[in-house]
């Protein structure tokens, strides 16, 4: 199923597809960088990572004595929190089942802020299962964000309904993973705080008859939000030739291209670090570190990924000039130090108290994303994805006390 993006979704919410076209399922099964060769749910390499991770870095509890107990048998466990409430599970399921922005995580985040102080930039909400109603693997919603010149984010967002007084940047909800060995699409969803909100007229995110919303589409960005590796593009005819020396099929009036594995809507399954253009939108690299242009398939159509190869069709390959991005949106100022160091909470939301093996699975994800453990199976931390230009603390902090300001209702 391809990504479905409602107009409103493109503005504030990024719903990410169950899979790219073809045989791959981003973020599911096995380790990254395999080009999608691991079948979904195959469980990747032998051995369960989660119990190991739990032994590597046992967490501690920083809860004060006077903190209220967690309701319904929920618990804080080695750096994550398990909230137990069937209504909250249903709420996340409803967001993931929607291809528009009608869903709302705020009942879940309100439950979180009833227990924890307003000290997080990102909240990651996880189900322990894959709902049959889900349209998306994951959906990111912006909570608070200023206008960011240079990125196409021209209008500030300030939503109090989540319970935060303004600290919270965004909330991502995720389906349960199919195996302990595959990290949820944390790198992809987090990137949606910054992108892609460039003017679609520039050419990113659109193919001939399809709109990939806030993703890179058939352009040579090759990042977490999709796009192909420009260095890998070759012609199908003549065999071995490279653009612009490809032969047009006279019957279809189209050219067939072959690239290394990618999808237009996500490259999470490849385990890629953030692309230069993504780092630029985050304010982590200057425009001088970008290529002078990005290739884009003209009248393009994605024809699927099979193992390590992807296919595209179009009438030629054009270029989106980096100078045109700057002309259209202005310069992206370097991120302030406060926009390089983030905190996040990992919140496992279940109908009944989660079993230890499920808790361990999400502790492992928290430890990998927060660089508390060396990556296992190739999955890496947020900091690694940024080339260590930024970092993220993911270990759950102290419980709120009566001294903390009440959450915004
Ligand atoms: Zn997405």
Tell me what the structure shows.
It is a single chain. The chain is α+β, with helices and mostly antiparallel strands and 409 residues long. Helix content is 18%, strand content 20%. The chain has 9 helices and 18 strands. The strands form 5 sheets. Strands 1, 2, 3, 4, 5, 8, 17 and 18 form an 8-stranded mixed β-sheet that branches. A 4-stranded antiparallel β-sheet has the order 11-12-15-14, with no helix packed on it. Strands 6-7 form a two-stranded antiparallel ribbon. Helix 2 (49-56) crosses helix 8. The protein is globular, with a radius of gyration of 21 Å. The protein starts with 6 loop residues before the first helix and ends in a 16-residue tail after the last strand. The model is unreliable at 1-12, 18-29 and 34-65 (pLDDT under 50). The chain binds zinc ion. Zinc ion (ZN) is lined by residues 14, 16, 188, 192, 215, 266.
Topology diagram in text:
Blueprint: H1 7-12, E1 13-17, H2 49-56, E2 75-77, E3 80-84, H3 86-97, H4 106-113, E4 122-126, E5 136-142, E6 144-145, E7 157-158, E8 170-174, H5 186-191, E9 206-207, E10 210-211, E11 234-235, E12 255-260, H6 276-281, E13 293-298, E14 301-306, E15 309-314, E16 316-321, H7 322-329, E17 341-350, H8 356-369, H9 382-385, E18 391-393
Parallel strand pairs: 3-17, 4-8, 4-17, 17-18
Antiparallel strand pairs: 1-5, 2-3, 5-8, 6-7, 9-10, 11-12, 12-15, 13-16, 14-15
Helix pairs in contact: 2-8
The structure holds zinc ion (ZN).
């Amino acid at each position: 199923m391809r990504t479905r993006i409602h107009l409103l979704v493109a503005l504030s919410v990024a719903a990410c597809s169950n899979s790219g076209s073809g045989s791959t399922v981003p973020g599911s099964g096995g380790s990254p960088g395999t080009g999608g060769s691991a079948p979904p749910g195959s469980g990747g390499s032998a051995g369960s990572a989660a119990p190991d991770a739990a032994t590597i870095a046992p967490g501690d509890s920083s809860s004060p004595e006077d903190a209220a107990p967690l309701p319904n048998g929920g618990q804080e466990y080695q750096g994550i929190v398990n909230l137990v409430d069937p209504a909250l599970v249903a709420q996340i399921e409803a967001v993931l089942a929607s291809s528009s922005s009608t869903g709302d995580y705020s009942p879940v985040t309100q439950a979180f802020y009833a227990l924890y102080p307003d000290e997080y930039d990102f909240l990651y909400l996880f189900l322990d299962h894959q709902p049959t109603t889900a349209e998306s693997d994951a959906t990111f919603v912006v909570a608070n964000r200023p206008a960011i010149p240079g990125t196409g984010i021209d209008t500030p967002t300030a939503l109090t309904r989540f319970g935060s007084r303004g600290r919270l940047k965004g909330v991502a909800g995720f389906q349960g993973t199919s195996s302990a060995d595959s990290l949820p699409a944390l790198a992809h969803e987090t990137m949606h705080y910054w992108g892609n909100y460039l003017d679609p007229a520039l050419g990113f995110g659109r193919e001939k008859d399809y709109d990939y919303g806030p993703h890179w589409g058939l352009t040579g960005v090759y990042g977490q939000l999709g796009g192909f590796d420009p260095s890998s593009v070759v012609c199908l005819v003549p065999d071995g030739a490279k653009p612009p020396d490809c032969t047009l099929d006279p019957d279809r009036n189209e050219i067939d291209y072959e690239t290394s594995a990618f999808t237009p809507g996500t490259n999470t399954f490849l385990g890629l670090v953030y692309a230069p253009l993504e780092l630029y939108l985050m304010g982590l690299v200057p425009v001088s570190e970008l290529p002078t242009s990005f290739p884009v398939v003209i009248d393009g159509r994605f024809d699927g990924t099979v193992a390590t190869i992807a296919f595209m069709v179009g009438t030629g390959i054009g270029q989106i000039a980096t100078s045109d991005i700057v002309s259209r949106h202005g310069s992206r100022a370097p991120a302030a130090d406060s926009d390089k160091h983030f905190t996040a909470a990992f919140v496992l939301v279940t109908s009944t108290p989660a079993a230890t093996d499920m808790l361990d699975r999400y502790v492992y994800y928290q430890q990998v994303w927060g660089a508390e453990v060396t990556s296992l199976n190739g999955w890496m931390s947020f900091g690694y994805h940024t080339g260590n230009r930024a970092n993220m603390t993911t270990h759950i902090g102290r419980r709120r006390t009566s001294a903390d300001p009440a959450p915004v209702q």
